[in-house]
Amino acid sequence: MSKLYPLRVTPIYKTAIWGGRKIAEFLNRELPEGNHYAESWDVSNHPAGQSVISNGPLKGQLLQDVFESDRTALLGPHAGENFTRFPLMVKFLDANKQLSVQVHPNEEYVAKNELSDAAKAEAWVILDVIPGSQISLGFNQPVTPKKVAGALEADTLEELLFSFEPAPGECYFLPPGTVHSLGAGIFLYEVQQCSNLTFRLYDWNRTDEYGRRRELHEKEALETLCPENWHSRPIVPEQVDTGRELLINAAQFCLERLTFTPETPKHKLDCAKSCRVLTVIAGTLRVPGLEEVLQKGDSVILPSELGRVTLKSTDAVVLDAFLPQKKRRAKPRTTKPRRKKP
Question: For the chain, which domains are there?
Answer without folding.
Answer: 12-224 (2.60.120.10), 238-322 (2.60.120.10)
